[in-house]
Design a protein that fits this description.
The protein has a 6-stranded parallel beta sheet with strand order 3-4-2-1-5-6, with helices on both faces. With 223 residues, the chain is of the alpha/beta class. It is built from 7 helices and 6 strands; from the N terminus they run E-H-H-E-H-E-H-E-H-H-E-E-H. Strand 3, helix 4 and strand 4 form a beta-alpha-beta unit. The two termini are 16 Å apart. The protein has a single domain, classed as Undecaprenyl pyrophosphate synthetase (3-Layer(aba) Sandwich). It binds farnesyl diphosphate. The site of farnesyl diphosphate (FPP) has 18 residues, from helix 1, helix 2 and helix 3.
Amino acid sequence: MNTLSHLAIIMDGNGRWANAQDLPRAKGHEKGALVVREVTTYAAKAGVRMLTLYAFSTENWKRPSTEVDFLMKLLAKFLKQELPTLLEHNIRFDVMGDMHPFSPSLKKAIAHTKEATAHNTGLTQVLALNYGGWDEIARAAQRLASAHTPITPDALEGALDNPIPVDLLIRTGGEMRLSNFLLWQAAYAELRFTPTLWPAFTCKELEELMDSFTQANRRFGGL
Ligand code: FPP
């Protein structure tokens, strides 16, 4: 039986979920944020150590500015609203990605949530923000090069934003690709793809996917 320590999720399908019910795309993102809360508390109760969520990619800046603005506002609201839930469930909050382009107020809200939950010892919820696997690996290599450190796999891994290997990676929304998410950390991850759109994703389905992970035969290149 495998132990699920690090779960990562590509939360895809917010826009399609909203379109299917004649709602603006923003409503899909709003419902998606509620699902983030449910899935996070479920994972915390199930004993998962780390949950990494792809909330905003380095490529998402290409979306219309109205949608980008909405997602930034939603993120700020989310950070404020979720703090009681994080504290109640002993969840530590963290981020990965390049925070430089975010507004000073969003950076402040991120720092505040990190600080307020720093002593929690249960699940760590990591939001991948302005995150891309190529960018993370390039920034890690740049750090080593600046310090004149030889670029070995171990050194590169240690210089990543978050080096913890992913055990199970789930993508909702029907596409079967990684879209530049955790390219290094997911090298030996079990991958699960579901057609369910993120706003319609339930803890029941998560439980089923986690069960199928527990029973998978992971060999890590061995026999
Ligand atoms: C993909 O749906 C989702 C995103 C680009 C952003 C993820 C954001 C959320 C789940 C909501 C907010 C989360 C937090 C943490 C505040 P899409 O827009 O690509 O959907 P589509 O493929 O159907 O168009």
